[in-house]
Each structure stands twice: as C-alpha cells, then as structure tokens.
Amino acid sequence: MPQFLRHPASQPRIEPIPTKRAIPFVYTIGNQESPSLKKYNRYLDTPLNSFPLDETLFQKIPEFKRDTIIPLLSILHLEDDFVYREETVDGVQTGQYLFSTPVPSSNATNSLKVIIIDGLDHQYPNGFIHPVVLADYLWDFFARHKLP
20 by DSSP, 3-state: which? Predict the structure, then answer.
C-alpha cells in the first residue's frame, strides 16, 4: 500500500488545477455510518455511538477533519473556515458545514458542503432506505453553478 494512503496526515499538499468554472463539492455522511465510526472511535478515549449533529464534530473527532476535510479543502483551494447550520431535510435533522472562502493566493469560487444526516448508516439517502431524498435537496446547491 502506498505510504500516503496509510498516513493521511502526511499526504503532500495537492495543488488545485485551474478551472474555467467554480467546482461545487458535497460530502455527506450518516451520523450512524458504522465503518467510519469504527475507524474514528479508535482515536477516542470514549467511543461515540454516532457522529455529532452539532458544531462539535471537528472538535470531538479531529481525525475526521484531518483525514477527510483538509485534503478536500486543499484540492478546492479553500480556507479552513466554515459557516455551520442545522437544517431539517425531509423531516430529518442535519448538521451542515459550508466552506467557501478561497485561500489568499486564489481567485477560486469553489465550495465544499459537508452534511451529517441523522439516522443514516452506510447508504445513499434516496427516500426509500431513508426519508431524505438527497438528490432533490442538493439540486439548488448545484444549480447555482452553470456549466461552461
């Protein structure tokens, strides 16, 4: 296994590729996502039964931010600066982080939206296996970004 896959914190910084348009990116995870909980609970003194649905996620599980969010911010050329909000989607609570501040040396208009969905395990929420219909909810987020 390549070294950078075993040790995500030591990954080299990935320089973003200039694009002709903004790149919107969404990362969703269920707060009951068992493979990820198992992975991140090994770092914690007191294991969690679920990912927090509040603004404490990155404080309680800094490894999640280190392994998942920081590499995405690097690729999208975004600052580690977010706006947090809680929103009910199709009757289900979500915790949402929006990163949209470009690094100073960039004029990128990219964005990263991280959504934690209550009651979801390792599945895609499509209205059948979980009440949230994610594709419908995300339409407005992606529709703001026109294709060239």
Answer: coil
The pLDDT tens digits for 6-36 are 344 444 555 656 666 778 899 999 999 999 9
Residue 86: phi and psi, rounded to 5, are: -105, 135
Joined together, the tokens standing for residue 113 give 């939206």
CA–CA gap between residue 30 and residue 34 (Å, rounded): 9
Tell me the three state secondary structure of residue 67: helix
Q: Rounded to an integer, what distance in angstroms lies between the CA atom of residue 77 and that of residue 103?
A: 6
What is the token pair recorded at 141? 């987020």
In the chain, DSSP assigns E strands to: 24-30, 82-89, 92-99, 111-117
pTM of the model: 0.84
